[in-house]
From TrEMBL:
UniProt name for this protein: Exonuclease SbcCD subunit D
Family annotation (InterPro entries): Calcineurin-like_PHP, DNA_Repair-Maintenance_Comp, Metallo-depent_PP-like, Mre11_N, Pesterase_YhaO
An MF annotation (GO) of this entry: exonuclease activity
Lineage: Bacteria, Bacillati, Bacillota, Bacilli, Bacillales
Keyword Nuclease among UniProt keywords: yes
Amino acid sequence: MSFTFIHAADIHLDSPLRGLEKYEGAPVERIRNATRDAFKNLVDVAIDKKVSFLVIAGDLYDGDWKDYYTGLFFVSQMSRLQKEKINVYLIRGNHDAQSLITKELKLPDNVIEFSVDQPTTKINDELKVAFHGQGFRSRSVTDNLAKAYPQKVDGYFNIGLLHTSATGREGHESYAPCSIDDLREKGYDYWALGHIHLREVLHDNNPVILFSGNIQGRHIREPGQKGCTVVQVKDGQVDSYEHYSLDVLRWEVCEVDASTIDTVDDLIEATREQLVQSYQQAEGRFLAVRIRIMGSSNVHQELVVEKDHVINNLRSMAIEVGYGDVWIEKVKIETSRQIDLDELKEQHTPVASILEYLDAVTGEEETLELLLEEFKDLQNALPYELKNAEDGFDFTDTTLMKSRLDEVEDLILHYLTTKVGGETS
């Protein structure tokens, strides 16, 4: 028997894309609908390739529905597949565990869901395929579910659906942990795994074991291509499997080395070159980019002092590069100064005296505590967004005060030092 099927996971329908700075020109509507549009792409691929069935290895939803629209959207897409006689086999994961979803809709007959109480087997006699799976009853499942899965059904192509952290992956909770040997000993032909959002092949043949990854990146920690895996089966064995991109908005990190850059204009041009390349690789998708500017650089002080000016010029440039389809998610300035402070302090200039005073203050906890007391009223008056942003103001912690004093040094060096005949004065 020969056929084609799709393995997808971690759809997270209607999950908000997080960590995005809002500014004029941001593609708000396209971002809000990103997970739905990616899911439509999944259904399109299934129909275009005339697949025999689709398996979804957990986390179809991102949690309990705010309203019934999320469920109605899923039903509408399943009806498209039902019209093409394409069945869908799915399990629940930690985000759409039975205990989390309080609203339910009757699903089309082509959608087959596995029990959350124990592993069960669904048989497709026409294709000679046996599906084995168990969903999550509650969000936190720490048992090795794979141990209880049944052995293969002889004479059938056997597929296991499992939402698992496997042997553990950074950035993911340890749910339904298992080893590759646990999976191999069942004798299945293919294991469709979910939960890990980065595509990864754990075993490439006899059986094929892989995480298909999520179909749409939701934040900057999920960069690059996202999609599903299309599997070709010939004569009862996996013949090939390949990734198909489904994402409509792609996340990328653009790292710019500023160590050899002398002006902000040159920095923006260097960033432009990287963005042009990333935009071309995105193949027409929206691109959400985090820019990291790094290195010991001559423009460090200017980047600190003129931060808003630099960031908004980078945003303007990105809009131009992508014709409105490149969005700067965030700009992280992580440069350091090239000026030798010890050399400056030895010159006995007014600037040197100020720098020495700041050094002294930084080392005196009592003085810092007095400064915090002076700033108490200012801290209370700060707007919420300034106090709670990732790099927000906080005058209640001496550690953060010390880091702010570093910025004061940069301000002084920018405004009070000049280059005269190659010498700093």
